[in-house]
Amino acid sequence: MNNKKVLFCATVDYHFKAFHLPYLKWFQDQGWEVHVAAAGSMTLPYTNKKFSIPIQRSPFRLSNFRACKQLKNIIEQEQYQIIHCHTPLGGVLSRIAAKGIRKSGARVLYTAHGFHFFKGAPLINWLYYPIERVLSSQTDCLITINQEDYEFASKYLAQARTLKHVRGVGVNMKKFRPLAEKEKWLKRLSYHYTEEQFLMIYVAEFNRNKNHQLLIQAFAHVKDELSGARLLFAGEGPLLEKCKKLAEQLKVKDRIDFLGFRNDIDQLLPICDIALSASLREGLPVNILEAMACGLPIIATNNRGHRELITANENGFLIGVSQVDVFAKKLVTLYGSVELRERFSERSLEYVQPFSLENVRREMDGVYLHFMMEDIHATENQYYRAYL
């Protein structure tokens, strides 16, 4: 096993820090040499070698051709046994680059963290579908993280050798957990919030998909009815300044805390009363999983990733992506009912259990071990034929 190598590839290296460190560690613990290829200069733990590849998120950038050639050279030189691809562009380029090595027995896995093409998606998003359909025949295991994508792949991407449904990347229940009442209030004070304030939080990058404007508009609609409420935004991104200007125009900027990039989300979530999400598209949102693990009720837009986690009127509300008035009314509903928030909180804690890091790790362990055993059997068969 000591000569075995695995390559993890994604568009940007932060993807691995945020979601996949337990799996890098798992391979090292099994005696594998772990390599990572992605854009960025971040130092990652549990990694024997890291390649900085100029992958761009836009499929129309010429630098992606150079990135694909660079990946191909690395893959041919290193002779990996397993290549695990992530993110749309990282997944496309690494599977194209790995086409030749599959003939020598390498296994290529791709985790679709939410297909860009889905019912109701913009037409341009469907450009990924014919690419994904072609590349599915170059994929030994296609892994989906929500039921809707799994059903779609079963019908239209069946060229992949194996199709698996794994429940996301898992949430660390020891890190993300509810706080006892006294601990909650003391923690609030340390962040300069009071016991009486009603805290609503959205953890997301400021980009078009995350749709922060919906929450700002909804809050502005009912700001007088939510007199004790504050809206917390944790994240940075290209639309941050635009959202600040909108909040100022709608006269709610003094009621919104733009917290920037945070490393203390596990501390912020449990001091809040509810969690929000306004995104247009989700695969299986980690921010909602973490909020549920902290026992928060959820108000979110109605998309496939949110539907996987939120049962309407059980642990939260699902709202249309353009229904500002409805979103605003649901804010008022939860603001005014401690009993409803407590019931939703109990259900969030119940519904999040199957998505624990331990459960998801077992699911992924099963996927990896399947291909490891397949490789062992293939080697044994080669030896047996040679012996005969």
Folded structure, characterized:
The structure is a single chain. The protein is α/β, with parallel strands linked by helices and 388 residues long. The protein is 43% helix and 17% strand. It has helices spanning 14-19, 21-29, 63-78, 88-97, 128-136, 147-156, 181-190, 212-221, 240-249, 265-268, 286-293, 304-309, 324-335, 338-351, 357-387; strands at residues 5-12, 33-39, 49-52, 82-86, 107-112, 141-144, 162-165, 198-203, 229-234, 256-260, 274-277, 298-301, 316-319. It has a 7-stranded parallel sheet. Strands 10-9-8-11-12-13 form a 6-stranded parallel sheet, with helices on both faces. Helix 3 crosses helix 4, helix 4 packs parallel to helix 5 (128-136) and helix 8 (212-221) crosses helix 13 (324-335). The longest helix has 31 residues, at 357-387.
Summarize the structure.
With 388 residues, the protein is α/β, with parallel strands linked by helices. The protein contains 15 helices and 13 strands.
Map the helices and strands.
Elements: E1 5-12, H1 14-19, H2 21-29, E2 33-39, E3 49-52, H3 63-78, E4 82-86, H4 88-97, E5 107-112, H5 128-136, E6 141-144, H6 147-156, E7 162-165, H7 181-190, E8 198-203, H8 212-221, E9 229-234, H9 240-249, E10 256-260, H10 265-268, E11 274-277, H11 286-293, E12 298-301, H12 304-309, E13 316-319, H13 324-335, H14 338-351, H15 357-387
Parallel strand pairs: 1-2, 1-4, 2-3, 4-5, 5-6, 6-7, 8-9, 8-11, 9-10, 11-12, 12-13
Helix pairs in contact: 3-4, 4-5, 8-13
The helix-and-strand class reads alpha/beta
Outline, from the CA principal axes?
Answer: globular
Order of helices and strands: EHHEEHEHEHEHEHEHEHEHEHEHEHHH
Average pLDDT for all residues: 92
Sheet with the most strands, sense and barrel status: 7 strands, parallel
The span between the termini is 25 Å
**Rg, alpha carbons:** 22 Å
The number of helices is 15
Q: How much strand content do the residues show?
A: 15-25%
